[in-house]
Specification:
The protein has 344 residues and is of the alpha/beta class. The protein has one domain: Thiamin diphosphate (ThDP)-binding fold, Pyr/PP domains (Rossmann fold, 3-Layer(aba) Sandwich). Helix 1 crosses helix 7 and helix 4 packs across helix 5. The relative contact order is 0.12.
């Protein structure tokens, strides 16, 4: 048995073109996935890690074409199982940088169980969840994140399902890195991807991604130049939760409930909630994940970033301990060990 340890990946000068495959990118014109693909290639090039050290894994959906368009190793797996495969890759090859491209349907419906356990185990995997609040590949059915009342081909009278909130799920599962960004906010998107790449542990990034065919404008409130100053709250570690064009609005606690206030008339920044992404207790991060438009400005940025042992490192330590105490084993001995039966 060979025991593989996590190692520092080598670096070299790279460009985004080095991470492009020779496949023609085929998404609908205007799809937000183009922006995500461009920024992922840009960020990976800046990291300088050779492309053969990366593996991209996907399930099924528009987002799951991602491995075809990356000039890296990759798996286009089956619906909802990308994280199971990615976990196996990382456990057997902890020296590789493993990324998962998934969607709100793929990750939160059939793949919800795998998502929970990958996050709680803290595998060092980067999970990019493209959230467009719709099933795009199968032509516009409502998804686990679609809002109540959403009329689609599968909910012609309006969805009656309560939507899942991906960040709340990730934080409840004890993910060590949780963030949200937006496809067209390319500077913020790139910075968030860089933070995720640098994190040692399970990194979960929700990306608001516009499906201009089946759910166009789902996040227009957060992207429109006329409204976004009042509908989006950019998180900054150690800073008060302020927003608005003049940064004159903020979030404070009224008992255990957040409320929007206007600075002035006796209300100062000291009265506001201060963001702490490194807090071991995830209560504040969870509270922020429950803030939704139109009642609140929606936070973007890093909600949580803490350090904990990764699954693959703990697994390797157990393997090393077993080899040191019992020696290198043989598969044949393992198969023949214990109770056996002979069927005539």
């Amino acid at each position: 048995m060979t025991v593989k340890q996590s190692v520092e990946l080598p670096t070299q000068k790279m460009s985004p073109k080095d991470f492009a495959s020779d496949n023609v990118v085929r998404w609908c014109p205007g799809c937000g996935d183009y922006s995500i693909l461009a920024q992922v290639k840009k960020v990976l090039a800046e990291l300088g890690v050779p492309k053969e050290n990366y593996v991209f894994v996907s399930g099924i959906g528009c987002s799951s074409r991602f491995p075809y368009y990356m000039g890296t190793y990759g798996f286009h797996s089956i619906h909802g199982r990308a994280l199971a495969i990615a976990s196996g890759v990382k456990a057997s090859r902890p020296d590789l940088s493993v990324w998962v491209a998934t969607g709100d349907g793929d990750a939160l419906s059939i793949g919800g169980n795998h998502l929970l356990h990958t996050l709680r185990r803290n595998f060092d995997i980067k999970i990019l969840l493209f959230n467009n609040r719709i099933y795009g590949l199968t032509k516009g059915q409502y998804s686990p994140t679609s809002l109540v009342g959403k009329k689609t081909k599968s909910s012609p009278m309006g969805s009656i399902d309560n939507p899942l909130h991906p960040l709340s799920v990730a934080i409840a599962a004890e993910a060590t890195f949780v963030a949200r960004t937006i496809d067209v906010n390319v500077k913020h998107l790139a910075a968030t991807l860089k933070r995720a790449a640098d994190h040692k542990g399970a990194a979960f990034v929700e990306i608001y991604q516009n499906c201009n065919i089946y759910n166009d404008g789902a996040f227009e409130y957060a992207t429109d130049k006329e409204t976004k100053d009042d509908t989006v709250l950019a998180l900054e570690h150690g800073r008060p939760l302020t927003f608005g064009k003049n940064r004159d609005k903020g979030i404070r606690l009224n008992g255990f409930v957040p409320e929007v206030v206007t600075l002035g008339d006796g209300i100062t920044e000291d009265d506001l909630l201060f963001h702490d992404e490194k807090a071991e207790d995830a209560s504040l991060a969870y509270l922020l994940s429950r803030m939704h438009y139109p009642d609140f400005p929606e936070p973007i940025g890093v909600f949580r970033c803490v350090e904990k042992p990764t699954y693959e490192d703990c697994l390797d330590e157990q393997v090393r301990a077993a080899v040191e105490s019992q020696g290198v084993g043989r598969l044949e001995d393992l198969l023949a060990d214990g109770d056996t039966w002979v069927v005539d």
